[in-house]
Amino acid sequence: xxxxxxxxxxxxxxxxxxxxxxxxxxxxxxxxxxxxxxxxxxxxxxxxxxxxxxxxxxxxxxxxxxxxxxxxxxxxxxxxxxxxxxxxxxxxxxxxxxxxxxxxxxxxxxxxxxxxxxxxxxxxxxxxxxxxxxxxxxxxxxxxxxxxxxxxxxxxxxxxxxxxxxxxxxxxxxxxxxxxxxxxxxxxxxxxxxxxxxxxxxxxxxxxxxxxxxxxxxxxxxxxxxxxxxxxxxxxxxxxxxxxxxxxxxxxxxxxxxxxxxxxxxxxxxxxxxxxxxxxxxxxxxxxxxxxxxxxxxxxxxxxxxxxxxxxxxxxxxxxxxxxxxxxxxxxxxxxxxxxxxxxxxxxxxxxxxxxxxxxxxxxxxxxxxxxxxxxxxxxxxxxxxxxxxxxxxxxxxxxxxxxxxxxxxxxxxxxxxxxxxxxxxxxxxxxxxxxxxxxxxxxxxxxxxxxxxxxxxxxxxxxxxxxxxxxxxxxxxxxxxxxxxxxxxxxxxxxxxxxxxxxxxxxxxxxxxxxxxxxxxxxxxxxxxxxxxxxxxxxxxxxxxxxxxxxxxxxxxxxxxxxxxxxxxxxxxxxxxxxxxxxxxxxxxxxxxxxxxxxxxxxxxxxxxxxxxxxxxxxxxxxxxxxxxxxxxxxxxxxxxxxxxxxx
Length: 649
Hints:
By secondary structure, this protein is an alpha/beta fold.
C-alpha cells in the first residue's frame, strides 16, 4: 500500500489528534525519542513502542521534541498513567553530533532530510530533566544505547571528564540497559498487577539510584560486588580503570553478580542481566505489526538517511562475541548470540519483497557481525562459568561452535526466492572465523562453501572486512587477531574470485590513533597495505565512547585488565599525524611522510612506502597462490598476474 494512502492509525500516535484515530483520550505510556519515528524493527524506539502496545497499553511517541521553546511538544499528551520512557534514539547523541575531532557534524541520519539540530547534546539527560520539571510525580524510565553505556561512572570524551552514572545526572527513576525487551515485558506485567514503577528495584537488567539509607533490596539468588565509589574514581584514575573490568566481566557472564557503586549519599544498584533471548523471544520482537515505514508527517520533509540505508535489509541476529576493545556492541547487546528462527527471517523477506518500492535487491542479510548467526557454546555449562569478554581472543574458544552451515543454507534459501534478484551481505564479516590457522574449530569444507556462496552471490561490488590494524602490539590491545591471518583470508578470497572469474575488491577497514598504536605502526600499516595492493580510503579515527576498554586506556593511561601503563595518542597533532599516514599517496602528504620517516631513521620503511626500491617480500610472506603463479611465470607456463587484483578502484 502507498504510504500516503495508509491510515494514520497504522502508526503509533505522535500527536493529540492521532489519539482520536486510535479511539483513545489519554495514554498509559509516553515515549520521548531523539530520532524521528520510523516504524521498523531496526529502530529501537519503534520496537519498544510496539512491545508496549502488544501488552495492552496505550502508547504514544514524542519524536525529536523541541527542547528550546515553550516545551509544548513535551506537554501535548499530558501526563501518562504509568511512566515516561526516554531514549536518545539509535545512537549516542554525542557520537551522532560530533566527529572524532569534536567537530560538529552537519547532518543527522535519523532526521528527515538528514538535517542536523533536531536533538540536544546529552539527549537523555536533557529530556529527563524537562519531564521531571513539568511532571514531577510521573516516573521516568530511560533506556537505549546512550543510557545503557553511561550507567556507571564513565569518561565523557566531549567534556573531557568523568561523569557519574546517568541515573544521577538525569534524575530518572529506572534504567533499562542492553536490549530492553525482556525487562520491559516484566515491568509491564507488574504494572498490570498494580505494582508502581518506583518500587521495582529487583528487575533483572535494570538499574536504580537510591539513598544509601534505604539499604539494599533483598534477592537471595544474586551475589553482589561493589565498585570503587564515584568520588574515588574522580581522585584516582586507576580506581576508575579497575571498575571497568568488573563491569565488563559481569556484563558478559551468563550468571552475573549485582553491582553496587556509591556516589555521595546515594547508591547505584545495577541488577544482573537476563540470559540471552531465546529464538522464540527474539522472533516475537521482529514479528510485531510494524508498518516498516517512517511516520507520514515526514513525507514532505525528505528521506530519513538511516531508514533509506536499511529499508530493504534483514537483521538476523544480535550480539557479538568478538569483544573488540573499541566497540560497544557486546557492552550493549551482549557477547552471546541471539538468533532469529529461519521462519521469522523468511517472513520478513516476504514483507520486504511486497514493498512497492522493492526492486529485487536486499541490501543486507546480516547482524552486528554478518557471520555469527546461530553460533554459540557447544556445552553451555562451560559458558556459564566463563568470565572472558571475548570468545575468539586471544584464541578461538574450543567450546565455540563456529559452523557456517546454517548461514550458508539460509543465504541459499533467500537467494532462491523468486522475487529476490540479489541478497547482499552488507554487514562486516569476521574474516578470522574463516581462517583455519586462527580458528582451530573450523570445518574447512563448510567455511569454503560459505565463502564461495558469499563471494559469488552476495557481494555488492566489494566486500567489507575489518582487520583494523597491521601491528601485532596494537591488535592485541584491540583484541583482534594478528594481521597474518588477514593475508590468509585474502588468499582464499582471491582464489575463489579467480576460480569464478570475478574482480570484486576487498575493502579493509582500519583505525588510526587507537590506544597502543604509535606513529611507526601507522607507517608500517601504510607500507604493508600498499604492498598488498590497497590504496586506503575507508579510514576511521578512534573515538572514545563510554564503556569500552580503549576509552578506559585513553583516559586513565592503563589497561583495565592489567593496570599497566599503555600508550594512547591524545593530542590533536598526534591524532592528525597518525591519520595522515593512511593517505601517504596524496601529493600534499608525500613530503611530510618523507620528512617524518627520515627524521625517525627509517629509510627501509620510507623505501617500502615511497620508493621503487622497496625490498621484496620473502617467499614465506608472499601468499601461496602468488608463489605458485610466480613459479609458473618462470617456466613460461602462465601470463603475468593482474596487478589490479585486490586493489580498490
